């Protein structure tokens, strides 16, 4: 049975049990401040469990893309070193929201595994929650009695809280669970030791295959448990492990989930995969095929590699794969990107985003590979310099500070530094490096640390967002909670009626005031969490239940919504000018400027930018009225021509914003008429990533301010140049400057000619060779010309010139051709450069080095005399 058939059978089975089959949610979470990625199948349904949203059906089934590489659920370090841990994996799941509970979940799981998939019953074990006195939780006897109907009691195992009480995180929905484990060992191995003893003991062939979670509690911030409004079922079956069981393999990597990718790696690398767990080559292949899946899906869902947040995690995964390929597969050129096509063929049917975004995914990965391989090559030079310095000092351990700087500042893999050092008989200070790493993590954690207390509920009332229609509203607080961070103590509040727009869709959240006759509080930010609009204020009212007036900062809102509306017009204009391949890949909308990232593989020309500007400003001048569809079925919106952004999660009903022919699904605030935007000006166009361009622009007040400042600059220039024709005056200055530079170059050459004669007579005989060590204030170009002439004219010579031109130390070394086999200019210059705290290089006949320490030139001079 192929992996595609296994996946389809699961979905078909639960469809026959009246479950609605829904697509996987994006692997990258954009509307949940508590998580970066979907780390379990239940993530997209969290609001249903908490009662914040109504599910579209009481029974749902799906296969969900998951990523476990950060936070509590982190499998990254295990990947490649065993047969079953992965960064990205599929979680097959069936869900009940207040419908069926333990009886149906257990009986259907048994039916699917034993009757549909045909797993022998004697190979299965189950666990139940044994209870926990500290939590005042009883043993799950209900699950035990239900399992007795299907499996012998000696195969039902009590499990502790760690294994059999499932929690999403430090707080949130949770409940007891029942795991199903499969024993895939041979009959001979089973005869030696019972599978009963190996369950939950990290045996690679006695593994958990399915977890049935009986979701009935909510873990509060203070650690206490409260009952959820209704009981739910949340199950998760590891797709890769299921395939291993059904295809009679000993490793997930031996299934057809991974074998096509492994075959491609073998083809590209010339290395044969043997499946040995301890073989570094095989570990590298497993890392590569695992990581390419995680990175490809993340990029397809809209998360580009970057230096912060979720983007940093994706970059780290990709660089880990590149590093393993570089070290153990001898891949010094980009090659991971060539695996994307194989992945598309395998999974494109079930995950169409791979097909649609395939070109982008491929180009981004290739660009990242090229960049990181350059980092490695640069790092190798730094490591070599560090090793030479350590050896010259007679030490055996590389200095911790420099090793950590290589890792932290330059992104050079620490394990690669370790390997290179060991080859030279050196080590790194493992304890010191670990301490530096931990200190960095502590600093990072301290910067982002935040203690969030439990909600204090004043009134159970659904909130009402009124910000589309007004920016001031009479309201009161329905719930609040204290928040402590490095900046102090604040309070998050939920209002009965809120005009504050919560951060989302690229637009920043509203700020403003919450005030009444006796008190006033600043609203510092507004965000959305678990369906609630939460505003952060700088104190707690004496009477939290009092009536207040919520007032949005009107100027900021006006400018933000102008910038948001203009992003829609910009998107349309870019598609008209560049082509329909253009898709939004990210945005930032604030009161001061907008940033718009879009798919396009070439730098935009000045003509293209001018045309886009022209089209957007034409729409502004047309005074197009906003057409807003607040609650329209998503399919109807798509049929009307609305743009849906890839990687965004939409509900059954959506909000569509239309300005003439521009139609997009959007939850942000907008102008009522395009004329309110005023004017649009592109400030810059640049590369955001491979295949992604970025436009930064301004509109409205900021655009007017831009042109006012420009006018002021032109006036000042005119006064400075004493001419109204600024352009002609500058052209004249450029011409004069070019003429003067030409004269200066002539003077330099004349001076250099004079120097050459003197320098030729200054060589010292050192045996049968000649050495010139000379100080000068000539510029680098002149020194280079002289050195090349001298190395041609003076046989068996070594020429070393030390320059202090423009107050910067520079060392130039030239070796005559007849000595090139005996002396290396690069080696000499690197040694001398230590004295000026610099570095450099070149070829055997010519090399240069710059530095920071001008005073060190004298030491370099004395050192050079002894060559």
From TrEMBL:
UniProt keyword rRNA processing, yes or no: no
Protein residues bound to Zn(2+): 564, 568, 666, 670
EC number: 6.1.1.7
Main location: cytoplasm
Location(s) in or outside the cell: Cytoplasm
Catalysed reaction equations from the record: tRNA(Ala) + L-alanine + ATP = L-alanyl-tRNA(Ala) + AMP + diphosphate
Designated name of the protein: Alanine--tRNA ligase
Organism: Chryseobacterium formosus
Gene name, Swiss-Prot/TrEMBL: alaS
């Amino acid at each position: 049975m192929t992996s595609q058939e296994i996946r389809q059978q699961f979905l078909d089975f639960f469809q026959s049990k009246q479950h609605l089959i829904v697509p996987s949610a994006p692997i990258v979470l954009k509307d949940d401040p508590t998580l970066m990625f979907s780390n379990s199948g239940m993530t997209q349904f969290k609001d249903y469990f908490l009662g914040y949203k109504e599910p579209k059906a009481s029974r749902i089934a799906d296969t969900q893309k998951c990523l476990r590489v950060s936070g509590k659920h982190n499998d990254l370090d295990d990947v490649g070193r065993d047969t079953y841990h992965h960064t990205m994996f599929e979680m097959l799941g069936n869900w009940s929201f207040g419908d069926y509970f333990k009886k149906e979940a257990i009986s259907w799981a048994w039916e699917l595994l034993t009757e549909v998939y045909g797993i022998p019953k004697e190979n299965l074990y189950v666990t139940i929650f044994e209870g926990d006195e500290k939590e005042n939780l009883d043993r799950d006897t209900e699950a035990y009695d239900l399992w007795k109907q299907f499996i012998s009691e000696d195969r039902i195992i009590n499990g502790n809280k760690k294994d059999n009480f499932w929690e999403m995180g430090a707080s949130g929905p949770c409940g007891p669970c029942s795991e199903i484990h499969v024993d895939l060992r041979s009959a001979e191995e089973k005869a030696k030791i019972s599978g009963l003893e190996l369950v939950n003991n990290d045996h690679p062939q006695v593994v958990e295959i399915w977890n049935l979670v009986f979701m009935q509690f909510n873990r509060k911030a203070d650690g206490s448990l409260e009952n959820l409004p209704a009981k739910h079922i949340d199950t998760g079956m590891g797709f890769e492990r299921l395939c291993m069981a059904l295809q009679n393999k000993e490793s997930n990597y031996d299934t057809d989930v991974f074998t096509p990718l492994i075959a491609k790696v073998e083809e590209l690398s010339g290395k044969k995969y043997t499946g040995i767990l301890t073989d570094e080559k095989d570990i590298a292949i497993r890392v590569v095929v695992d990581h390419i899946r995680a990175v490809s899906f993340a990029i397809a869902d809209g998360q580009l590699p970057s230096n912060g947040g979720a983007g940093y995690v994706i970059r780290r995964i990709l660089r880990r794969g590149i590093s393993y390929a570089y070290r153990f597969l001898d891949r010094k050129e980009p090659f991971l990107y060539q695996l994307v096509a194989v992945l598309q063929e395998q999974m494109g049917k079930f995950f169409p985003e791979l097909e649609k975004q395939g070109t982008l995914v491929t180009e981004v990965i290739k660009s990242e590979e090229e960049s990181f391989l350059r980092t490695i090559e640069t790092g190798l030079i730094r490591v070599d310099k560090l090793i030479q310095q350590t050896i010259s000092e007679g030490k055996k351990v590389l200095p911790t500070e420099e090793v950590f700087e290589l890792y932290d500042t330059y992104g050079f893999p620490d394990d690669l530094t370790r390997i290179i050092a060991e080859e030279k008989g050196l080590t790194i200070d493992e304890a010191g490096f670990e301490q530096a790493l931990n200190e960095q993590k502590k600093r990072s954690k301290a910067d982002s640390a935040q203690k969030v207390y439990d909600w204090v509920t004043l009134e159970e009332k659904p909130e009402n967002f009124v910000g589309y229609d007004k920016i001031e509203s009479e309201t009161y607080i329905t719930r609040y909670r204290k928040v402590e961070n490095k900046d102090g103590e604040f309070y998050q509040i939920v209002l009965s009626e809120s005009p504050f727009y919560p951060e989302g869709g690229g637009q920043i959240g509203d700020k403003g005031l919450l005030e009444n006759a006796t008190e006033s509080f600043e609203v510092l930010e507004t965000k959305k969490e678990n369906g609630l609009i939460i505003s952060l204020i700088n104190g707690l009212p004496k009477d939290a239940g009092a009536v207040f007036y919520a007032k949005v900062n009107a100027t900021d809102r006006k400018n933000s919504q102008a910038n948001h509306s203009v992003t829609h017009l910009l998107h349309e204009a870019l598609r008209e000018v560049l082509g329909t391949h253009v898709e939004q890949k990210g945005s930032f909308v604030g009161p001061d400027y907008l940033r718009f990232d879009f798919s396009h593989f070439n730098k935009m020309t000045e003509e293209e930018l001018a045309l886009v500007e022209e089209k957007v400003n034409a729409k502004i001048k047309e005074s197009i009225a906003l057409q807003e569809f607040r609650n329209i079925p998503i399919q109807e919106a798509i049929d009307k021509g609305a743009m849906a952004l890839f990687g965004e999660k939409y509900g059954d009903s959506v909000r569509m914003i239309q300005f003439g022919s521009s139609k997009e699904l959007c939850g942000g605030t907008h102008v009522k008429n395009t004329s309110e935007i005023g004017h649009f000006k592109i400030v810059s166009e640049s590369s955001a990533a491979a295949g992604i361009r970025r436009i930064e622009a301004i509109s409205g007040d900021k655009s007017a301010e831009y042109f006012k400042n420009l006018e002021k600059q032109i006036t000042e220039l005119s006064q400075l140049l004493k001419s109204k024709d600024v352009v002609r005056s500058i052209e004249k200055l450029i011409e004069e400057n070019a003429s003067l530079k030409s004269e200066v170059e002539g003077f330099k050459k004349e001076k250099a000619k004079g120097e050459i004669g003197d320098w030729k007579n200054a060589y010292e005989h050192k045996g049968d060779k000649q050495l010139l060590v000379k100080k000068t204030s000539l510029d680098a170009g002149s020194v280079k010309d002289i050195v090349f002439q001298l190395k041609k004219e003076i046989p068996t010579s070594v020429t070393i010139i030390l320059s202090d031109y423009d107050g910067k130390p520079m060392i130039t070394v030239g070796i005559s051709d007849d000595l090139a086999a005996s002396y290396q200019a690069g080696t000499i210059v690197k040694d001398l450069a230590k004295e000026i705290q610099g570095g450099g290089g070149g070829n055997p006949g010519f090399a240069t080095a710059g530095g920071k320490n001008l005073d060190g030139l004298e030491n370099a001079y004395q050192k050079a005399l002894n060559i």
